[in-house]
Fold this protein.
Amino acid sequence: MRLLFCSLLMVGAVFTASAEEIPEDPLGSIQWDDMYRAYLSEHKVVFDDRVKVMAPEFAEDSMNVPVSVDASKLTGIREILLFAEFNPIPKILKFFPVSSKAVFSFRFKIQQASPVRAAVLTSDNVWHVGGVWIDAAGGGCTTASDDRLGGDWADHLGEISAGVWNRNDSIRTKIAINHPMDTGLVAGIPAFYLEKIDVTDDEGKLLLRIEPFEPVQENPVFTLDVSKSAVINIEAVDNNANEFSARVVQ
Amino acid sequence: MKKAISILALSILVSLPVSAAKYDYGLEAKKIGVDTYLFLGKKEDFSFQNGGNIVNTGFIVTSSGVVVIDTGSSKRYGEQMLAEIRKQADKPVYKVINTHHHPDHFLGNQSFKPAPIAALKGTVKDIKSSGEMFSENLYRMTGDWMRGTEAVVPDVTLQPGAEEIGGHQIEYIELSGHTGSDLAVFDRTTGVLFAGDLVFYNRTLTTPHAIPEKWFVALDRLSKLPFKVLVPGHGEPVTDLSAIEQTRDYLRWLVETLDSAANKGQSMNEVMQEKIPARFANLALVKSEFNRSVVHLFPAVEKKTLHRAN
């Protein structure tokens, strides 16, 4: 609330300057300016139709909201940051396509109606931003995960399952990792989440990297288009330094 | 956040049309068979405009009293239903039956107390565990229509089988598929079958707790009953197999679509882009319900295509 008040004051005081600095949000969110300042202001920011974010209009299950990003029309991508600005923890995930396609899907927890946005940083130091609004009944971030309630999450921690489908120019890969992905916002359950997932080839060359934050779904499933490789190695680490790895042979 | 919601709710209340402000569902008991009446719900999703009147409920007037099948989405719905029942019958309510644990079918229960409220064992358990959550959800979706509504858990566990009530041979058929516990009520005396939400007609079926393979079995069982009138949980009553067949056709398409998408490695959002066949175009809410079903059912289907890698 205080932040909103401050930004309102700023709009009044230095209207011209801020209007030039911060591009107008096509989604009309009152949190946009704060997101800009928090994550994007070091570089130029443009809203760009080439950054496609897909999500249903309404979050049927606030613990599992499917989102897909396709930024494959852009070249020279350094990183992609996903955030939902009305979530108590706005940052959802960072994606580094490295040699793979900038196309990926997963599910995340939403606390209330919010835009979900992908900001794509290209090598010319420009953030290209795309996004959509998602309506939600809410509660996703402050609800305990299913396995927490079931009490058996530790039995399956770090189990990795995968599926691969050969496509013309890449390998459609699904990676599922058992992890509670606790946000730290539920009383008595500290934040406990996967921090990094590297996908490499057999020589150890990085094909893509994912850096999840707390809002990524419990037992996440990532749908990826990995560059061609006979073997895919998956190495994941969480914020308690637990390491999990798996090897998928085509 | 709570404050924001109440301010929002307040601004909706201030601007609402007078008719909605009276919280009158406009229920009319329609006679569909001997001694048998139906309150036909709208083929919509819950909203403030419809107040949750989206479900079919009904009643049978027997010489021993009135048998009520499902109680609607709120205390107000139950009260208004009871008032309409009084216009058709001067007998007490003999028994109230809940076909399954979804909120539009049981949240009117409290208005029928102290009449006995009966449901299958699984339904009683599910109402006990989810009733309050459903009630809170509906407050959010329909607002003040829900005033005073509390989830009342059935106090009688219904045994499957036949029961004679005031000259009516009533059969309780225990099934599952729409949820883990679904009841169909078949009045063998009149030939009216209350199918609950195992059957939808011209309104897309919903799947938040669906078990498709069991649902197909239930539909086969229902299609063999010698009914004269079938009352679906949502949509108009029918006198033939058309509603069962439509439900089965859509469910089969849904299952096959999800299977095929999972086997191609598609993501949930990719599945949601799937074109819906023209024969389902007349089903109310088909696009939004399809998307909801993808969220409900796809994760389990997808899981079957993944293999342990460590």
